[in-house]
Amino acid sequence: MRDTGYHDEDDHDTNYNFDFPNFVAVIPDWPSPSAQQFAENYCKQALQNSSMSAFCAEQGNVDIFSTLSQCVEDIKLTGDPDWASSALNTMEQQCSSAVLANVSMFEENENGTLTPPQAFVQKLCLNQCSFKGICADGECICNDGWIGKDCGVVADTAPVVWDLKRGGLCDIRQRPCEKVNVFGKNLLKSENLTCRVAEASFQNGQWTKSGISFQTSASFESFTEIACYLPPPKVQPNRYHLPGDGTPSYGLYISISNEGVYFSDELLLIIYDSVCQNCVEDSACSLKDGSCLIRGYCFQDQDSNPDDWCQQCLSSTNTSEWSRREVNQPPSILSSGNITKVQSDSFTVMIAGHDPEGRPMSFSASQNLPHGLSLSPDGFLTWISHGPDTFAMDIILTDQCGAQDVQAFTFSTIPCPCNNNGVCVPSPGMPIGEGHYDCLCQPGFTGPRCDINTNECQSSPCQNNGTCIDLVNSFICNCPVGFIGEYCATFDECSLNPCFPGVQCQSTNAGHACGDCPPGYHGDGMTCTQLPSSCNNKYHQMKNSGELATDGIYMIDVDGQATPVYCDMSRDGGGWTLIVTSKSMAGWDKGNVLSYNEGTPTTDADYSILGKADRIKISGASTNVVQVM
Ligand SMILES: [Ca+2]
Ligand SMILES: [Ca+2]
Prior knowledge:
Distance between the termini: 144 Å
Structural class: mainly beta
Bound molecules: calcium ion
Oligomer: single chain
């Protein structure tokens, strides 16, 4: 199977334009009267031999005499009796068209379908069997010595060839050169149609077969044209990168055979690369001016070495080897040589470069870079925060062919311009490495450089005429008398002096809380009353204030401590302080006899404040301080 992508077709050729004004048709005379007589006899004989002519004459739809005169005229013009078939074919085509157009002549077959008349169909034979056979049921039966579908080929003879298409030259730049058409005669549409190919090289002034012959497939194009399929061409311009040498041009001897036995003469096909080869039929190919032939591959002047752009074909210098590229512009570094940052910053900046020819480039530094600075070959320069503060070096940009640009670079560190511990951050949208920084301020500061203390009193946060004092990221309210709280929002109940004089007042969300009453006083802090020092004192206080003193528990002051005691206010004039009650013998011991159940004075159960008796007695202002029941 052939590759369907094959395009070695005629449409690759430029059209040939006839030069009409200079074209003059020449109609020849008969060379002799006998030649005219021969032609007339030949054409009559051809008409008689034609299986169709009698049938068509009967139908009356063709002019047999006109066909005869056209036949004679063709032979006169060409001088070749083979042209008799042209007039006969024309006549038969007219006859066929007329018969096939006249449905009334059609016959019904066994399937009931109308078909052209059998008498007509049986007389249709290719090329009138070349007058070398008879037509039977549409097939030629050839005379002895003639073969082929139209009996047009002499049996057991080789085809005769006279030319290859395009003069036997195939330029690999124009077409794939995988096919060549051979012109000739005695060509047979045979299953065994074969081409034979043998490589040739130009030696000792002529093309000589240099390889073995082998057969390739062929296709029948017409009775005068055969297409031969060729092995893959050795001229392959795009394989320079592969090992081994290439082939700029070579020859192929081509011959054809109808049946694979009798081969025609050989015709030479030259396949070549027109980039560096001048080839003409049958001569050696020569090197074109302005080209190079390197390792067997063709290159034009200025062409680059596919493996190394820095080399090119300079035919004026060397046509067989690469020359160093004539013109190579150096690249240039486009970035500024000053790179600046604050100490704390780290960044990667791309150094821009340009090569006029757009060839690959690489960046390098003129010296070893200190820790913290790095430069990649594609121009990415990284400088990290703990790198050097200042540094200077040359940066070199080298193109593929070694041409260079050198630029001095200085790296410098600037102080961070942010005040009050503001943090430097790169300014968004600004080029990196040019010292553009914004400040990220600590809370409480603002301004481009964080030098403005934000006024937190701006919103007048203090209520009730409190005075706001601005601090860093905060404020204090100095509250007027009567108000407390962060915002002076709470009324200060203590300002109304709700507590007993000398008792501490504590403002709370719920109101206020008073502290303990002073020593010698008893109460909740708001109200404190001075305690008597004995029941006797209490008796007289009550008596003096007109109160009725009854027996019961009262608070008295013992050594500055409020202490509950039982006072007998009725017996023997009243004002007796109960010291001991003993109802049982159990429970008493040496340890508790001085103070037994002293918090719960009672006359009904065991109780003792003997340990305090002396002090109560001393403080008692008058008599009857101790009663033991
Ligand atoms: Ca360059
Ligand atoms: Ca502030």
